[in-house]
Amino acid sequence: MLTAKPLEVVPHVRHGFFTREGGASKGIYASLNCGLGSNDDREAVLKNRASVARSLGVEPESLVTVHQIHSADVVEVAAPWTWEEAPQADAMVTAASGIVLGVLAADCAPVLFADKKARVVGAAHAGWKGALTGIMEATIEAMEKLGATRGNIAAAIGPCISREAYEVGAEFRMRFLDADAENAKWFGTSEKPGHFMFDLPGYAEARLHAADIGAVAVLGHCTYRERARFYSYRRATHRNEPDYGRQISAIVLRPE
What we know:
Elements: H1 5-8, E1 13-17, H2 42-55, E2 63-64, E3 74-76, E4 91-94, E5 100-105, E6 109-115, E7 121-126, H3 128-133, H4 135-145, E8 153-157, E9 167-169, H5 170-179, E10 187-189, E11 195-198, H6 200-210, E12 215-218, H7 233-238, E13 247-253
Parallel strand pairs: 2-5, 3-4, 8-12
Antiparallel strand pairs: 1-13, 4-7, 5-13, 6-7, 6-8, 9-11, 10-11
């Protein structure tokens, strides 16, 4: 489990960016696969999720995730739900103690948020589409509605695919340029004609800084290149593997 300094210093919060290590799953899912949407053995995934919850000091039923759809949709969590009850969204916020907000990723950027004073936390799944359409800003706004103050919010971007591993086509780049010509700086050259290398963590970090929150951290681990530590959708695709695991990043308010 990895942590981020801006969140470590918040006394009313526990958090973790979990790797693929230390779980019950086997084969291509080895070993801490927390994605119930994968084709992994369901009991192994539930055991993995239970391990994550307990490591953060809560019982397994208090860990909630959503059905992620690469949107800018945020939901408030007032009480735990089951996987079957989970809404479609890509971020969650809560002011309730003891509820673990978990987001799944396998190259997309997981982002955890906490207000350093108010008891409000958030978690967002920021793939390229969510980041472009405002999932992180929407999470901040939802936290403010629960009593957070923008200048007191700390955010941390967890392990995701790096610029060196994220080759994209011209149409992908054009979507970002159509939104803002300044986005050209997030695309480097590729050895493949007509393609570019996209800096997802850099882009996400810039969006968070532009939102004027109190602190932003980037862990800097690449899910594609660090095969032993992280799942990667793109790596699995390049290796012609039939499926892939998902690591979880999670945050919870400690009991008062």
